[in-house]
Design a protein that fits this description.
The complex is a heterodimer of chains A (about 190) and B (about 475). Chain A has about 190 residues and is mainly alpha-helical. In chain A, about 55% of the residues lie in helices and about 0% in strands. In chain B, helix 1 packs across helix 2, helix 1 packs across helix 5 and helix 5 runs antiparallel to helix 6. The chains are: A mainly alpha (about 190), B alpha/beta (about 475).
């Protein structure tokens, strides 16, 4: 059960969120219940610590990056429910025959791109790639090896020779990957 | 103040209604002997009927609402395959089971021991699985929901379980009012009276038994007295317990392990078998009780700092277990209260002692009252109050066959085996996570294990690629 001072969602709010994210009303209610459970101090907003309190996320090597993705547009290091929903909306499965507005392949790719793009300048530099690699493998691979992996990856993907990976180059590199399946999760009603 | 008032109210009620007084007295006489008039069973059945009625009403209302808002897209979200989810657990490489909770853990075909010096294959999309796993954990994870009360599938007429109260029907509301009055103005005073009389009697009797010199008769008396006291105490929250597989009851020179949900677990288990208790030495009233208990029979109380010294703890446990005159020890290896939907990691301390282990599974029926004690949200007093104003505490206890550690089994494997058997007997989810996560944050080494796991995945993929290339070259 959520906190005792959780505010119930009004139907107009739910409808607005449906339009802005594409979730159904019952999915929104379920996610709201989850939001209030995570919101430990009951102030209607989540902080980074609230999210990192989830053990399965805290041991994830990319845990910090994923949390950062939620806080990208946050002003004071906290996000409200709508911001929470909007980030989660990117992971809705793409339904055949319906034009995806918030969960298109491009948006999913952009989310993955931002995992690597630490400073948000729409370019993955060599240092940023090295940093993320380090997050993923820890101390199990030597720094020289990591450096050579980073160099090789950039060489293979970089097309305009600026020694960095742009979003277009990233999408091109992943064009054979089944992004829709790998970056979609099932939201229960 | 409150107990006095309660007892007055109770007294008034009983004397005004003589049949009730006779019933009450009969029940109190029968209770210590484990006999019962079957009143509670009828009560429980009546409650089940009422809940069914409430649930049907709620569903009708919900279906009508869904039809109006055109929300019937239930078919759409069911067209996915069982996705190969990357499930992160604290110790990925020792996970022997291929299936955890019905979801497949994405593992490599074979963990290869290639040298990290080999050119490791890294693709930009290697991280997608981890992103998906992370978002999945944010939406729903296995651990955080174990530390708060279980969600009920349908309302059980208690305001504390109703998340957003919507007006359903006059009849339900009327039922709720009736229930409210019944629970707070009839059940509560009766229960408080029983609680206080039983506790005072217990303290008195235990202190008397303590005066008897050590002999077989004393042990027999203590056994009977303990059973009687806990049976009456269980009436104070209308505990309805069903024991299964009585042939596996714990015996002396054994250690009984069970899953932990609330302090009431001790009362529930002690209604059938007398145990030697383990715990921290308290001061004040509880300390007094502990000292009296120790004079009556051997229990194991630790000073606050002693629990850190693992070998001393094991030694004391072993001494106790070796003595045939002592009662079986009751231990909760999880170390903390979990909400009775899952079993979390068992600490291996009690499994290193040797001797026979008697696993016991306890499963509460949450419809009648949730026994889980969320110690960060409610104080003990508040919790007891909630227990006494619930409908009843209904639970099942399974005595599982006794087991001992196999020769080539480590203590941790033994603990996991027992944990798995308790989980399957009680219909609970078997988790590898540590219950202490309630209060502490994850250990650094778990994240490091994930990093290791990722590295080996990359190496394995690389090896596969190189094997394919080799094969192509050979052809």
């Amino acid at each position: 059960m959520g906190n005792s001072n959780s505010v119930t969602l009004q139907p107009e709010e739910v409808e607005r969120m449906q339009n802005e994210t594409g979730f159904s009303a019952s999915q929104i209610e379920r996610l709201y219940s989850r939001f209030t459970t995570l919101d430990k101090f009951g102030n209607g907003a989540l902080s980074r610590e609230d999210l990192l309190r989830i053990p399965e996320l805290a041991i994830n090597p990319l845990g910090d990056r994923i949390v950062h993705a939620f806080f990208r547009d946050a002003e004071d290091e906290s996000i409200n429910f709508l911001q929470f929903l909007k980030t989660l909306a990117i992971f809705r499965p793409i339904r055949k025959g319906r034009e995806p507005r918030y969960n298109s392949r491009e948006q999913k790719l952009q989310f993955a791109f931002r995992m690597y793009d630490l400073d948000g300048d729409e370019l993955i530099s060599r240092d940023e790639l090295l940093c993320v690699l380090h997050m993923m493998v820890g101390a199990n691979i030597s720094d020289e090896q990591l450096a050579s992996i980073a160099d090789r990856t950039i060489r293979e993907v970089d097309q305009d020779n600026d020694d960095a990976i742009s979003l277009a180059e990233f999408s091109e590199a992943l064009k054979r990957t089944e992004v829709e399946g790998k970056m979609s999760i099932r939201y229960l009603n | 103040m409150v107990p006095v008032l309660a007892m007055l109210l109770n007294g008034v009620l009983l004397f005004l209604v003589p049949p009730l007084l006779i019933l009450y007295t009969t029940l109190m006489i029968l209770a210590p002997f484990g006999l019962s008039l079957g009143v509670r069973k009828k009560y429980v059945q009546l409650l089940i009927k009422i809940f069914e009625f409430g649930r049907v009403r709620l569903e009708q209302k919900r279906n009508r609402k869904n039809q109006m808002s055109g929300d019937g897209h239930h078919g759409e979200d069911e067209d996915e395959e069982m996705d190969d989810k990357l499930l992160l657990v604290p110790d990925p490489d020792s996970e022997k089971k291929a299936r955890e909770n019905g979801r497949r853990i994405l593992r490599m075909g074979s963990v290869c021991e290639a040298e990290p010096k080999d050119l490791v294959s890294f693709q930009l999309d290697s991280c997608l699985d981890y992103i998906k796993s992370g978002i999945q954990a944010i939406v729903d994870d296995e651990v955080t929901k174990r530390f708060c009360a279980e969600e009920l599938k349908s309302w059980n007429m208690l305001t504390r379980t109703q998340q957003n109260y919507e007006f359903i029907s006059w009849r339900l509301t009327f039922l709720w009012f009736v229930g409210f009055f019944f629970r707070y103005f009839f059940l509560l005073p009766v229960r408080i009276t029983i609680f206080f009389t039983s506790v005072s009697t217990f303290v008195f009797v235990v202190s008397s038994v303590a005066l008897v010199p050590e002999c077989a008769a004393k042990r027999w008396i203590y056994d009977k007295v303990s059973l009687m006291a806990f049976r009456i105490l269980t009436r104070s929250y209308s505990g309805t317990i069903r024991f299964h597989q009585l042939e596996n009851r714990p015996r002396p020179q054994g250690v009984c392990v069970a899953n932990h949900t609330s302090p009431i677990d001790v009362c529930i288990l002690s209604c059938d078998v007398s145990y030697a208790l383990i715990g921290q030495r308290h001061s004040g009233f509880l300390g007094l009780l502990q000292r009296a208990l120790t004079r009556a029979s051997s229990h194991i109380w630790f000073e606050r700092g002693e629990t850190k010294d693992r070998s001393a703890v094991t030694r004391r446990l072993k001494e106790h277990v070796d003595d045939p005159n002592k009662l079986p020890i009751l231990i909760f290896p999880e170390g903390t209260c979990i909400n009775n939907t899952s079993v979390m990691q068992f600490k291996k301390g009690s499994f290193e002692v040797g001797g026979t282990i008697y696993p016991v599974a306890i499963r509460y029926d949450h419809r009648f009252g949730d026994a889980f004690w969320n110690s960060s949200q409610y104080s003990m007093l508040h919790y007891l109050f909630m227990m006494m104003t619930s409908w009843a505490i209904v639970c099942d206890v399974w005595y599982l066959p006794p087991t001992t550690r196999q020769p080539n089994e480590s203590a941790i494997d033994f603990a996991n085996r027992v944990k798995a058997s308790i989980a399957s007997a009680g219909g609970l989810v078997d988790l590898m996570w540590d219950g202490q996560l309630k209060r502490m944050s994850v250990k650094q080494e778990w994240r490091e294990k994930q990093q290791q796991h990722f590295t080996r995945r990359m190496l394995a993929i690389n090896k596969e690629i190189r094997d394919d290339e080799q094969r192509e070259k050979d052809e």
